[in-house]
Write a structure and sequence with these properties.
alpha+beta, Phosphorylase Kinase, domain 1, Aminoglycoside 3'-phosphotransferase, Chain: A, domain 2, five-stranded antiparallel sheet, 9 strands, globular
Length: 334
């Protein structure tokens, strides 16, 4: 248990705890961008999330704490589009840059990443992730009021474009032009509402479907970002565990198909190719960017990802299904 006077003051400001109540507060682990706590109120457990000005990674990575309110706003929008796909917001404290939300018992709501790392690959669940994200993109596409509400370009630049694309471009000067062009296109895009961090570590496998967390990088921009960001992790898991590669690629295809079944806001072929390009860049970013994945530590496997990604970045007319097929063929040789 921890003593945190700010959390207690915020609970009272949000009218979640009485003046005489002093609930147990437990710091939770797992996140790099904020502090997360379980608070056991008299009415039951809740979760508190508070933004940090510096992320907990090796490289210096600063970001505005106001992003926490963008996360709460995305939860409200997504929950209206896909009921039950996000935690309920119970209170928000703009003075302390935190919010309170529904708490999920880990035994009943496991983190999807943990299951994937055990080799438990559920293609139907992957399809539901793709369908839900596609539905949220479809509901927000072309909506000027949503675009204005989520015009968080500075946060998206600080948390996504710079660490994942521009930082990686500096590490690969001979691929920099391609990556920097994608970065400029992302910054200029105004198509639909992005979650900004659709990763298995931010998705709970609930009994009724996926529950999305950590939307603090939500921004109105290119929906290809979300799809590429999540598909990237399924491909990286192939390298982490080659014996499960076929299952991870099957999950990749299930997610892709379910997502594109929702696409009606633009030409699907163009979106597919744009996503494939970003996916190639993200593969490279997760070994040479500011936030490398922690489960690929073998230098030979890192180099495998690096060389494949560099090759994909030069491939003309690359599609998602084509990239996945090439990746699977390469992984078999590991």
């Amino acid at each position: 248990m921890t003593q945190d006077p700010q959390i207690l003051q915020s609970l009272r400001r949000m009218h979640l705890a009485g003046n005489a109540e002093n609930p147990p507060i437990l710091a939770l682990t797992g996140g790099v961008s904020g502090d997360v706590f379980r608070v056991d109120l008299a009415t039951g457990p809740i979760c508190i999330k508070r933004a940090l000005p510096r992320l907990k990674v090796a490289a210096e990575w600063l970001a505005p704490v106001e992003r926490i309110h963008s996360e709460a706003d995305w939860f409200r929008f997504a929950g209206a589009v896909e009921p039950g796909c996000v935690p309920r917001i119970l209170g928000e404290d703009r003075e302390s840059h935190l919010f309170a939300m529904q708490y999920f018992e880990p035994a009943d709501y496991p983190v999807w990443k943990a299951q994937l790392l055990k080799g438990e690959v559920d293609t139907e669940f992957a399809a539901n992730v793709g369908r839900s994200i596609g539905h949220i993109h479809r509901a927000s596409a072309g909506q000027k009021d949503i675009a204005a509400q989520f015009a968080h370009d500075d946060m998206f630049m600080a948390l996504r474009v710079e660490p994942y694309l521009l930082f990686t471009a500096k590490a690969h000067p001979d691929r920099a032009a391609r990556i920097e062009t994608m970065a400029r296109d992302l910054v200029a895009s105004r198509i639909a509402l992005m979650h900004g961090d659709v990763s298995p570590k931010n998705i709970l496998k609930g009994p009724d479907g996926p529950i999305f967390l950590d939307s603090e990088t939500a921004c109105y921009g290119d929906p290809a970002f979300d799809l590429a960001f999540c598909l990237n992790h399924l491909l990286l898991k192939c390298v982490w565990s080659p014996p499960h590669a076929a299952a991870f690629v099957a999950a990749f295809e299930a997610m892709r198909l379910a997502y594109f079944a929702q696409v009606n806001w633009e030409d699907a072929q163009g979106l597919d190719r744009r996503t494939a390009g970003l996916l190639a860049a993200f593969l490279l970013a997760r070994v040479d960017g500011k936030s490398p994945v922690e489960y690929i530590t073998d230098p030979a496997k890192k180099d495998f990802v690096r060389q494949a990604a560099r090759e994909f970045l030069l491939a003309p007319d690359l599609t998602l299904s084509g990239l996945a097929a090439l990746w699977h063929k390469k992984v078999v040789s590991l």
